């Protein structure tokens, strides 16, 4: 049986913005067809880019080059200088723009106002929040080119006063996971900030794919639906809630992202 395998390259990179520095990987399909799409992904709190490795690997089947990066201060990904809390929260969304610059250069795409590159950005949990916030960066070559935002394991439930990660059930988990990030960005501070930011998301006029498993105990049974209602007045939102996609297994989202994009992107140059 003939296989349609397309060779690809994985290239290491370093993203830098102001005081932030982190490791990244570019996935470049070696295809004769030049895709107009570029994808940028990052992971959730206390994790690393390996959580979204499968996302990029699966997008190679659509001939889409991508880049995944570690969030600063996350020890599973790199041991670069730790940012302050303020720098981490305010500047991390800018890393999507820096990733875009690198990936566009690697994919040999020039600034063409007639045919600009189309961007797919996203992340898991905190990474999804940073992706959404990056869409508000007022840079025409980036913001206007974003066609899809992929938000996995991300929801909103402002009726819940205590985050699940702060419950007794997760104290042992936090004792472990909390030591996988720099002390400057401790979970006590970051999780409180996440809750506050969800109530005032800046994204407007975008296509957003919300993906949250029914077994995602962090998002909760209605968190993704509440977030969809919150975003829908200003965006085109698609929600998918598979039976099995627990919060700690974001790699399982790869197939869902693949099928969504296969159905919803333009295939003219793929």
Can you describe what's shown?
This protein has 270 residues and is an alpha/beta fold. It has one domain: Rossmann fold (3-Layer(aba) Sandwich), CATH 3.40.50.1820. Strands 1-2-4-3-5-6-7-8 form an eight-stranded mixed beta sheet, with helices on both faces. Strand 1 and strand 2 form a beta hairpin.
Write down the secondary-structure element order.
EEEHEHHEHHEHHEHEH
Radius of gyration: 18 Å
Low-pLDDT runs: 160-164
End-to-end CA span: 22 Å
Q: Quick one: CATH superfamily?
A: Alpha/Beta hydrolase fold, catalytic domain
Characterize the overall form. globular
The counted number of beta strands is: 8
Mean pLDDT, to the nearest integer, reads 88
Strands across the major sheet, in which order? Answer: 1-2-4-3-5-6-7-8
- Which class in CATH terms? Alpha Beta
Q: CATH topology, what is it called?
A: Rossmann fold
Count of all domains:
1
Please count the helical segments: 9
Q: Biggest sheet, in brief?
A: 8 strands, mixed
Q: Strand share of the residues?
A: 15-25%
CATH architecture classification name: 3-Layer(aba) Sandwich
